[in-house]
Amino acid sequence: MRTMIIFIPILIICSPLSGADHTLFCAVDGAVIDALWEETVLARVEIGLSLDEQFSLRFPISLTAEREIGGPRLLESGLFLDYYPMDCGLYLSVSLIQVGALFNDWYDDGEDSFTFLNEMVFGWSIDPYKGLRIEPRVILRDPNGVFDSAYNTLSLRFSRFPMIRFSLLVGWTFPLGQTNQLDIQEEEET
Predict the structure, then answer these.
(1) pTM confidence score
(2) Are 36 and 174 in contact (CB under 8 A)?
């Protein structure tokens, strides 16, 4: 696992970013509105980089917290690979590595507060206006049951810790080194 932690950032750094159609995107999970009536706050922010038209990388940062003062907090992050098999925006995202750190544990039973996690996401990326990005999606936590004990521990710590979660990301895309097609057409005409 340690070699994977070292290999993935090296792969990202060494990958060429000087091509066309690379975009950076930032998004916030709109499902955080549930915190108004639920006891557990589920907040998520994501930053991503599209590598080409079929693959992109995501770096999500999630916070799961009880609204009660001094309650448990889970901060999780990771690196996800998105695969867009069709041109319609549907995608599958899998976690290459995902870790979580539990703070303010009420039980404090001597277990390590640092744990490995796993998620898989089915989503649909919609770009209604230039730059705006909306993604309805379904998040499946630990789809293959590898980290069953870690998720059982987390579900005991929080009043609401869903294994299947619906999400709505709303964000913005930023082109990186993309040549504008209108500029190319203007240069050809002159």
Answers:
(1) 0.80
(2) no
Extents of the domains making up the chain: 24-189
From the candidate CATH numbers 2.40.160, 2.60.40, 3.30.300, 3.40.1350, the one assigned to the domain spanning 24-189: 2.40.160
AA letter at 97: I
Only one residue has tokens 């799961």, namely 64
Distances (CA, A) of 176 to 8, 30, 54, 55, 71: 21, 26, 17, 15, 41
Q: Are the beta carbons of 118 and 95 closer than 8 angstroms?
A: yes
CA distance 15 to 50: 12
pLDDT per position as a tens digit, 86-125: 888 899 999 999 999 988 776 666 667 788 999 999 999 9
What is d(CA 22, CA 66) in angstroms, rounded to the nearest whole number?
38
